[in-house]
Structures are given as C-alpha cells and as structure tokens.
Specification:
Layout lengths: L1 H26 L7 H20 L7 H38 L1
Helix pairs in contact: 1-3, 2-3
Length: 100
C-alpha cells in the first residue's frame, strides 16, 4: 500500500507540470510565476536523480524505476517551463513598451 501511495504522488506531480507548461504557453505572460521557485525545484530534482542513481536499493523494483523516470521527466518539464518564463518575460516587456 505504501508503494502505491508513493506512486500516485509521483504520478500527480508528473501530471501537474504539463498543465503548468500549457498555462505558461497560452498565458503569454510571466505574471504569477516565480523563477526562484522553479530553480529550487530543478535543484531538488537533480538531488533526487543523483540520490536514485548513486544509492540504488539492493533490489530495484517498479517504484524505483518509476521514481527515477519521473524525476527526469519532471526536470525536463520544469526546464521547459523556465524557458517559457523567459519567453513570457520578454513578451511582457514588449507589451509594456507598446502600451506606453
């Protein structure tokens, strides 16, 4: 039961990033986003991947592989969201110049 609950948590986190990417892409603004927060998440996922790779359990079960793949996927997804943050910041500056 413990493994199932952890797997569900990992899946929910993994599903949240594509939703965030879509919102960032369609909103075309960086307002409401925190680059600082996303950088901390990236660093956290790096630590998670390193931990899983450097200190694997004696028996690598399905949850180990799910977590490792999810950490890598989430790192990639957050990286895309960070890229969109910079795009949207640029769009915000263009919109502010056009408004003046």
């Amino acid at each position: 039961m413990s493994d199932l609950l952890e797997a569900l948590m990992i899946i929910c986190f993994g599903l949240s990033w594509p939703i965030s990417i879509r919102k960032s892409y369609t909103a075309r603004t960086a307002k409401g986003k925190s680059l600082f927060f996303e950088i901390f998440l990236l660093v956290g996922y790096i630590f998670g991947v390193v931990r899983k790779a450097a200190f694997p359990p004696e028996t690598k079960n399905w949850l180990y592989w799910l977590a490792l793949c999810a950490y890598c996927f989430n790192f990639l997804a957050i990286s895309i969201d960070v890229g969109l943050y910079f795009r949207n910041t640029k769009l915000d500056k263009i919109a502010a110049q056009t408004k003046n």
